[in-house]
Amino acid sequence: MKFIDEFRDGRIAASVARSIHGEVMAGRTYHIMEFCGGHTHAIARYGLPELLPASIRLVHGPGCPVCVLPISRIDAALALARDARVMLCTYADVMRVPASRRQSLLTAKAAGADIVMVYSVRDALSVARAHPEREVVFFAIGFETTTPPTAAAILEAERTGLKNFSVICNHVLTPSAIQSLLDSPEVRRVGGVRIDGFIGPSHVSTVIGSRPYEFFATEYEKPVVIAGFEPLDVLQAVWMLVRQINEGRCEVENQFTRAVTREGNRKAQALVGQVFELARTFEWRGLGEVPYSALRIQGRYARFDAERRFGLAIKSVPDHKGCECGAILRGLKQPQECRLFGTACVPDNPLGSCMVSSEGACAAHYAYGRYRRDVVPLQHASRSAS
Amino acid sequence: MNARARRHARALDLREGRIDMNHGSGGRATTQLVEELFLCAFDNEWLRPMDDQARCDMPPGRLVVATDAHVVSPLFFPGGDIGSLSVYGTINDVAMAGATPLYLTAGFIIEEGFPLADLKRIADSMAAAARVAEVSVIAGDTKVVERGKGDGVFVTTTGVGVVDRALDIHADRARPGDCILVSGSLGDHGVAIMSEREHLSFDTHILSDTAPLHGLVKAMVQSVPTVHCLRDPTRGGLATALNEIADQSGVGMRIRESALPIRAEVRAACEFLGLDPLYMANEGKLIAVCPADRAERLLAVMRAHPLGAQAAIIGEAIADPLHFVEMETAFGGNRMVDWLAGDPLPRIC
Questions:
Q1: Which of A207, B52, B54, B317 has the smallest number of Cβ neighbours within 10 A?
Q2: Pairing state of beta strands B312-318 and B334-336?
């Protein structure tokens, strides 16, 4: 496959890995957080940790949209899906996210709710056109990557006079999540979780550009390297981060130059600005309420906002007792440190959201890395290193 | 046949007609459907008497029986249809014991309103597949369910065959050190089905690999009778089949990604759909596990057969109390190849 195989070439990987081994300083550990679930998936799928020196610890971040979706939002979708007028459209991964009372959209579908799995919001528009007698609601999730298409769909619905289409908006913002992490007590506390640098988002950055991360480099003194989702991208980004850390630099570097510019996709940004506005606060699984961390539909498009249209009540619900998704999403724990991991919580029957999407840290680790038994708990590692 | 067809005042309208509840009543309409459509297609000495059962002779050996229900959607897909699939799917299960399939039975659950033309197309396709595979459809049943209570047509087939008593091919016989082989490119069927999926049509030249495997199996066991396991990696693909064998045999497995035969088009389709070809269904491929010292011989025999031209040795069984299947990635790392969780596809076989 052209333009794919080049980025998965084992020989080049071996040579980049040698460079990383040559770059790391003896007696020093490097704690690198990959923010995105796409990176988590690539790291697990291609077995990257085995190519890296033991002193490099990859810490999974909260950048998996399914994983950070709180129970309350799924509960609201479930309540709506039980309305016989409603056809609820959503992405496949969302269907399996556990909600209250062991419910999920998948169990609701089995019980008769009309829930349609779609590959894109455009499919939801087609469903709405094909079923004018029904209320078609798109359960929109995702970071900045999936937001412009949702905006475009709302504009298209307005332009074409589509009256039976609306959106439950769960679009969240990457920079707010990073800031919330860096401000969290666990990260700020001396001897707490160490993050020496970030592998910056891939697809998100094609939309927002590299500029939003400059704040983290200058204000928080954390180097950021924006990287593509291919395994060689990740490996090269690790190398670039190790060099920055060794040289004491805190810059935003762009490894993903083939797709990301400093300014990002202005047209997509304009679309988002036209339809959405900042929500005052949004609940994240793992991070709790984070101010100005999500988008809501502007008042002038209120009729496309399913929350207003159906008067949806979003009621916060605590996570399953014993579920460590929160700590895992903040980089405090690794999946294997959760006592439910691989026992009560497995991909076929997930209790926590990180076990749902293949981008979730737990699911990725369960599916690809479970055989590795030499797990060093992150906190111990960070304590011994500090 | 013709004498029978004339018993009915008007022949079935095989162009415009549709299945109605009368066709499932057990009365004249049912008989007419069976005679003019199914018997026409499958005609043979066992079916012709129209008894409630078939009596047939079996050559010496152990009886091998397999049954498979087919609910594929869409019914017609690039490279095949539910008809050929229901024949090959079942006889391949029989063949994975090293057996020669001989007979099939077929049960049809048909939804009210289903076009007779489509039903005929399916029956003709089954008949053609049975001829290719040299098996006879010797008994059958039809039922009609009300509109909305089926999905067009479901076909359940049972295959009967015999296997030489000297052969002992079971999924629990893999041993540490054994080699693992596959007969050809992986994931073709799954991608062909995906390309026709509602909301997801995309153009691809990939055809389903639906094919009968007992000819290939026969050549394999004649040359290497010590083959330990055979399995056709249908639903859930290679990953699922390997995990099943590892689990049943109580071994671990290590495979090499770079050794897996996967077409560029299949990889590309999986890439943009976010799927893994290792979990894509196959309907004309098999996995073989054999002693390491027989692997090259087995590979040569497989490659000499038209259905095994792309065969490859992809890894080996290892001792592992956890029965994990691991893969050395082409990138140079290692990863697990786990059981499939959830369902990435609509019904595929």
A1: B52
A2: unpaired
